[in-house]
Each structure stands twice: as C-alpha cells, then as structure tokens.
Amino acid sequence: MLGLLRKAGHPITADPARAEILIVNTCGFIGKAKEEAVSTLLEAARYKTDGVCRSLIAAGCLVQRYPDALREEMPEIDAFIGVTEYPRIVELVESVTNARLNAELTPDGIRTSVITAVSRATADTPVFECAPDTPRVTTQPGAFAYVRVADGCDNHCAYCAIPSIRGPFRSRAMESVLDESALRVGDGAREIVYIAQDTTRFGMKSGDGAARSRLPLLLRRAARLPGEPWVRTLYCHPARVTDDLLDTLAGTPGVCPYLDAPLQHVDRDVLRRMNRWGDPDSIMKLLEKARGLGLTIRTTFLVGFPGEDEAAFRRLYDFAEAFGFDRMGAFAFSPEEGTPAYEMPGAVSDRACADRLDALMRMQRGVSLSRNKLRIGNVEDVLIERIAADRNSRGGVVYEGRGAREAPESDGVIRVRSAEPLALGGVVRARITRARHYDLEGETVSI
Ligand code: SF4
Question: For the chain, percent helix, then strand, then coil, each to nearest 5?
Fold first, then answer.
C-alpha cells in the first residue's frame, strides 16, 4: 500500500503527528489482536482532534471481518479497506481527500461521510503482489524482506477465523515470487523470508490435495538469485513437511537450516477436535528427522482448546520438554465467532489457560537456554543489522545481528563484539562465546 501511495506521489511519514491521512493496518484473528487494533485506531483518532490529521483509514483483517460493526461503532473512521482491496488504496485516499473537501465536520470532529472498500476473497481473487514498477516501502528495520508466496487457507483448523477473513488458498506463480525476491535483493535485502498462511501449499491449487508443493523448488531457485540471499520460509504446515522440503532446508547453500512448523498440540484427541494433523508418534518422527538433519526447529502451541483436560495438557508439556524445541511460542485459545470451536463444549477457564501458558513458557525458557548453550564455540555467519552499543567495557562496538538459525522478529539475536567497524547488512564470521536464555553473544573472527 505504501509503495502504491509513493508511486502516486503521496509523501509518506511514519510520524502520526505529521500525517494528514492516517492508515492503520489491523489484525483481527484473535481477541488480543482485535483489542490492540481497536485501541490503535482510537489512539490514531486522537490526532484528528489534537493534530493535523484530517482523515483516518482502517485497513486489513479487522475491517475485512467486521466492516459493519466498525462502521457503526467507530464514527471516527472515515474509510475502510479490506484485505482484497489493497490495490485500491490510492483511489481510496484520494476519495477521502475529496470527500473531506465536500463534507462538514460535526462539532466533535467526526466526519459525516464514510467510504468503504470491502469484498469477500474468493478462489479467483488474485494475491496482492508488489508490481515490479511499484517501489516497496518496508516498515521493518533490518536487512531482510518478507515476500508473500500465497494468501488464504484451506486447512480450516477448528479455532481459526483466518480462512473466513483471507479466503481460500491462492498461490502466486513461481516466477512472480522470484522476480519480487530479486527486486528485494536489489533494494538491499540480504535475506528473503517467505510467508503465507500455509507456505507448504505453495504452487498448489485450492482443493487440490494431491498436487505437489513447489516450495522446495522455490527455495532452491531463490538461493541462486544474483546476490545469493539467505532464503527462509516460515509457517510450514506439519502435514506437508516432506522429505524433499527437509532435505532442501538442510542441504541447500543459502537456504536457512530452519524449520518453522506450528504444531498447535500433540495430543491426538485435541488435534482431531482442532481438525489438525498428527499424533505424538508421527509428530516425534517428523521432528527427529528434522533434528537429525541439523535443522533448528520452531513451533507454536495453542493451550486451553475446548476439551483440553489436565491430562492432555500434561502430554503436551511432557512432549515439549522431552523433545526440547529450539524455539517455541504458545498462545491461549481465543473463542472466535463463526469458527466450529466457538460452540464446542469443554471450555477451559481463563485461569487454567493462563496457568498452562505460563507453565509451558517457563519450561521453554530453560530449554531455550540449554539449546543455545550447545552453540557456544561455534563459528557462524551473522547478518549484522544494527549497532547495539557504541562501546563496551572491553572496547570495540557491539552489533546486533542474526544467524541463519534466527528468524527475524520472532527469535532472539546474536550480539557481536568487533574491534573493527562492521557494515550494516553485511555478513561476518563470529565465534559464539556466551548463551543467554533467548539471545547469543559472540565476537568476530578473521577468516
Ligand atoms: S493452517 Fe493456520 S491459517 Fe490455516 S486454518 Fe489452520 S491455523 Fe488458520
């Protein structure tokens, strides 16, 4: 959206106090995300009365999910744009500007006209792509770029509202993803991170369960692009983590040896009620194969799903402790209207949910430290992303970066001490000297 606006000549600022039009891109798939989106919208609306902002636009998943309720309950918002309508952002911004010229302010600063662009995603809705002639304006710092390879989801996990928000699964074409990846490398990205609701379906058609995923081929080809970026994929559905994918992650120079496979649970009954794949044996087999190939493994668990009794939670806890995930995130179940789990019996109390989440994450803290300690003494490539401290007690500058085993934003960092100045966005060799619970420390070594 920012790229389209810039191309159309609209100056962009990240400072909300200076913006005449504020766009808030929202998330809306679980309770906490919805609360955060609404409070950000309310915060942004304050700039309409206290600052130079004249129009507020709400974009994204919350809008897609609740357009009518938002229109009714948040009169501060001047325009709404759902996830399928992003290509129309310039038109919307310009309509809002014109409407503002023609509309009167009510005494409390609220506009009288509202513009809405929301439509349902179908199997024919194209994935919103960054066209080659559109500049990409990234909002995240660092030397990496996310590239979306597909949108929507056909998995229909019983707790998940995302398929109803983003629509059925649609894959981008291989060449289009590679072209965009090459552009991002040209813009300075040293690492390309492939994302989608389910990256392992890349190259498949909606409803075509028998087709082969083209994700392994995409990774292999992307790693050979000019500039030889690091290539990483996130959000692999465990049911579609094939030997080909594991071998590609483990054995392709430039492809990060990193498997992110959200499991959500390991208890067979809970998984069936979730409409998810697996049981303890098949999951352990997959994980051992991945670990045997030397991959760093991240997963996500969902606690407090309806019917998860103490024994089922214990099975999850014991499994996670015994395997020892390198990285693990956990969430408490959030009942979402319109999903099968919303009506399921066996609700787990908020208190029990919070206790289970806490117990799991406390355990993982210790596991994470012991997994990190295994890397002490290793000499690894580190992608330098920012200066952490100009000077430290031993002289030299401390930089912050990541290895191929750290995904941006969700994992820890590697702090590297160097006597020589290091280029941001460059890759250096560093010896890991110290492990913290989630982060590592090291120093540069000459090759
Ligand atoms: S695979 Fe992910 S996005 Fe798709 S339904 Fe399941 S949890 Fe939701």
Answer: 35, 20, 45
CA distance 38 to 57: 13
Q: Name all domains of the chain by residue range, CATH numbers in brackets.
A: 2-117 (3.40.50.12160), 144-373 (3.80.30.20), 379-444 (2.40.50.140)
pLDDT tops 90 at residue 271: yes
Query: Largest Cα–Cα distance in the chain?
Result: 68
- In tens, the pLDDT along 197-236 reads 999 999 997 665 556 899 999 999 999 999 999 999 999 9
Nearest 5°: the CA angle 111, 115, 118 is: 145
In 219-285 the beta strands, taken as DSSP E runs, fall at 230-233, 258-260
Which two three-digit tokens encode residue 357?
């989440």
Task: Please list the residues that pair with 56 across neighbouring strands.
Answer: 22
Q: What are phi and psi of 5, to 5 degrees?
A: -65, -40
Residue nearest to atom 2 of ligand 1 (CA): 197
CA distance 271 to 281: 13
Going by alpha carbons, the residue nearest to atom 6 of ligand 1 is 157
Torsion angle of the four alpha carbons 341, 343, 346, 352, in this order, in degrees rounded to the nearest 10: 70
Q: What is the per-residue pLDDT for 130?
A: 77
Distance CA 81, CA 14 (A): 20
Distance between CA atoms of residues 323 and 394, nearest Å:
38
Beta strands 170-171 and 150-151: pairing type? antiparallel
Integer-rounded Cα Rg, in Å, for the chain is 23
pTM to 2 decimal places: 0.93
Return the best residue to mutate from 148, 164, 195, 198 for the ligand 1 pocket (most ligand atoms within 8 A of CB). Answer: 198
Q: How far is the CA of 154 from the centre of ligand 1 (A)?
A: 8
Distance CA 73, CA 82 (A): 17
Alpha-carbon distance values, 176 to 48, 112, 171 (Å): 40, 42, 11
Which pLDDT value is given to residue 141? 73
- The answer to whether the beta carbons of residues 41 and 76 sit under 8 Å apart is yes
CB of 303 within 8 A of CB of 339?
A: no
Return all residues near 208 (Cβ < 8 A) that are at least 6 apart: none
Terminal-residue alpha carbon distance, the chain: 43
